[in-house]
Amino acid sequence: MTTRVGFKLSASASPFALMTALGLVGGVIGLAVSTRSFLFSYLAAFGTAFAVVLGMLFFVLLHHAVDAGWSTVARRWAENFLAAIPWLVLLFLPIYLFKGTLYDWVDADDHLREVKEPFLNARSFGTRAVLYFVVWLMLARFLRLRSLAQDLSGDPNLSLSMRRWSALGLILYAITFTFASIDWFMSVDYHWYSTMFGTYLFAHGALGAFALLAMVAVRLRAGPLKQQIPESTLHDLGKLTFAFSVFWAYIAFSQWFLIWYGNIPEETIWMITRAQGVWTTARWGMVALLFVIPFVFLMPASAKRSPRLLTLVGTGILVGTFTGLHWIVMPAQHPVSFGFGQVLLDLAALLLVIGVCGSAVSRAFKAAPLYPLRDPRLAEATGSEAHA
User: Fold this and answer.
1) Which long-range contacts (CB under 8 A, 24 or more apart) does 219-222 make?
2) How high does pLDDT run on average in the chain?
3) Is the dihedral of CA 388, 319, 59, 155 positive or negative?
4) d(C-alpha 73, C-alpha 225), whole Å
5) Residue 226: exposed, middle, or buried by beta-carbon count in 10 A (0-12, 13-18, 19+)?
6) 339 neighbors 346 (Cβ within 8 angstroms)
C-alpha cells in the first residue's frame, strides 16, 4: 500500500461541480421568483451541512480527548470532512446578507424584541458568527495539520498534543455550537425558546455524521482499504450510529415533553405549528428515518456489520437530517403546507450546498492518505477483529 491512496468514493469532483452549477442556476431563479421562500430552503440546506460537518468535528475531538483506539482509521475520514468548514463561511454570507428577510427580529418592534435586543441585533449576530467560525476553523486546522505531520514523522507527542487541546476544544465546541444553533435556527421564530435546542440540533448533526462515516467505511472497505478496515470498525460505527439514534430520540422527546408539560404559550405555539398540515407528515417521517428504522434494523449485532444495511439506514438518516432541518426552519414561511415550487427551491438549495461542500471534501480525500499512516494506535485499530 502506498502512502497516497486515491479517493474512490467519487472518481472526480465533477459531479459536485455539476451540482454546484445547477444549484447556482436554480438559486438565481429562486431568488428572482420568490426570494423569501428560496432563502428558507437555503437555510435548511445550510443547516444540514452545518450540523453534519460539525458532527464530524465532534467525532475528531472526542477521538483525541478519550484517546480512542478503534476509531483511529475513521478519524482521518472525519478530518477530511472538516475541509468543508471554510466553505461554510462562504455559504453563510447569503444568510447574513439577507438576515432581514429570514429573521423577523431584525425589523420587529414589539416588547419581546425590545427585551432581547441586547442579544438579537445585527451587529452582535455578525460578530458572534465570526467568532464561531474562527473557533471551528482553528480547531479543524490544528487537528488536521498535526495529523498530517504525524504521517511523516510518526512523533507520538503529536498525539499527546492533540489529546490535550481536544479537551479544551470540546468545551469551545459545545459553547459555539449551542449559540450558533440559537442564532441561526431557533431565532427564526424569536418568540420561541427551548433550553434543549442546542443539544437537540447537536444530536441531529452527530447522528448524520456517524451514519455518513459508516457509509464511507463500507465504500472504502470494498475498495482500497480492505486490509486496513477490519469488520469490527463497521460494527463500532454501526453501534455509534445506533446509540446516537436513541440519544436523538431521547432529546427530541424530552424537548417535546417539557414544552407540553409546561404549557407556556410562547413555547407551545412552535410545536403546534409543526404538528399540523404537511408538517405532521414531515415530523413522523423524521422520527421514522432517524429513530424507528435505525432502532429496528441496527439492533442485531450482525446488522451493524452489514454493508448493505449500514448504507441503506445511513442514507435514510441523511434524508431524515435534512427533513429535520426543513421541519425546524420552513414553517416560518409555510405554516401549513407548500407546493411543488417549494420542492424545486429545496432541491436547488441542496444541490448548491452539497456541491460546494462535496467538492471541498473530495479534494481533501485526494490530498492525503486515507488513514493515519504512523499513528501510535493504528495497529490497535487494524490489528484484530473486536467483538461487541
Assistant:
1) 219/8, 219/9, 220/8, 220/9, 220/77, 220/370, 221/307, 222/307
2) 90
3) positive
4) 10
5) exposed
6) no
Report the C-alpha gap between 42 and 330 in whole angstroms.
10
Residue 59: which of 217, 181, 197 has the closest Cα?
217
57: Cβ contacts below 8 Å, ≥ 6 apart: 78, 82, 85, 136, 139, 140, 173
Residue at 96: amino acid letter: Y
pLDDT, one tens digit per residue, over 207-234 is 999 999 999 999 999 887 887 888 889 9
Q: pLDDT digits over 62-117, tens only?
A: 999 999 888 999 999 999 999 999 999 999 999 999 999 999 999 888 888 888 88
Contact in structure between 337 and 278 (CB atoms under 8 Å): yes
Q: How confident is the model at residue 383 (pLDDT cuts 50, 70, 90)?
A: low
Question: Which residue in 135, 136, 100 sits closest to 120, CA to CA?
Answer: 100
Cell of 8: 474512490
The grid coordinates of residue 271 equal: 410545536
pTM here? 0.92
Nearest C-alpha neighbor of 135 from the set 201, 46, 76, 57: 57
- Span 340-372, pLDDT tens digits: 889 999 999 999 999 999 999 999 999 988 889
Single-letter code of the amino acid located at 385: E
Mean pLDDT of 296-300: 94
Whole-angstrom distance, CA of residue 333 vs CA of residue 125: 21
